[in-house]
Amino acid sequence: MPRSMAPPPSGEFSVTLTKPFSSTTTPSSKIEIIGEPNRPATIKHTQHVGAQAQTLIIKEGSIDAEDSNELMDLIKPLAGFPSDPNSDVYGLDTRLDLATFEVQWDNGEEVEGAEAKSNPTDENKQTFKDVVESIEALTRQKAKQRTS
C-alpha cells in the first residue's frame, strides 16, 4: 500500500540522502538537511567507515538561506517520479527521502501520487543524479568534522 506522506509542520523541510539504497544494511553515508524556507538550514553527514563500519565520522554545518532555497527549487521536479521499495531504479545505490511542504517523495517507498512502478526515463535518471550530486557537493562545502 502506498505511503501517504503529510507535509512537515510549519513549512519545515527535511532532505535525507542515504547510501547504500538497501535499508537492510548500516548506511555507509547519510546526509540530513533540515530547515525552513528562506532561513538557514542545518546539514549533518554521518559516515560509517572501516572494517564492519565500526568507525563513525560526523560532519556538521549550516547552509545559508539562499542555498537552502536553491535546494528546494532543485528537488521540486522529483515530485511524482517513479519509486520502488524493492529496487534501485535510478542505478546510483542511493536513497533520497524528501519531505517539504510541496514535495513528499522517497525513491525507496511506494508514494501516493508517484508514477507507477516503471523504469524511469533517461531524463528522470539525469534529474535524480543532478539532485544527488548537488546535495553531495553542498555537503562537501558546508559540513565540517566535529572536533572534541
Provide structural commentary.
This protein is 22% helix and 28% strand. The protein has 148 residues and is α+β, with helices and mostly antiparallel strands. It is globular.
Helix tally? 2
Ranges where pLDDT stays below 50 over 5 or more residues in a row are: none
First-last Cα distance:
45 Å
Overall helicity: 10-25%
**Quantity of strands, as a count:** 7
Main sheet: strand order: 6-5-1-2-3-4-7
Could you tell me the mean pLDDT? 85
Strand content: 25-35%
What general form does the structure show? globular
What attributes characterize this protein structure?
alpha+beta, 28% strand, 7 strands, 148 residues, 7-stranded antiparallel β-sheet
Quick structural gist:
By secondary structure, this protein is of the alpha+beta class. It has helices spanning 65-75, 122-142; strands at residues 13-19, 29-35, 41-49, 55-63, 95-99, 104-106, 144-145. The protein is globular.
How is this fold's topology laid out?
Elements: E1 13-19, E2 29-35, E3 41-49, E4 55-63, H1 65-75, E5 95-99, E6 104-106, H2 122-142, E7 144-145
Antiparallel strand pairs: 1-2, 1-5, 2-3, 3-4, 4-7, 5-6
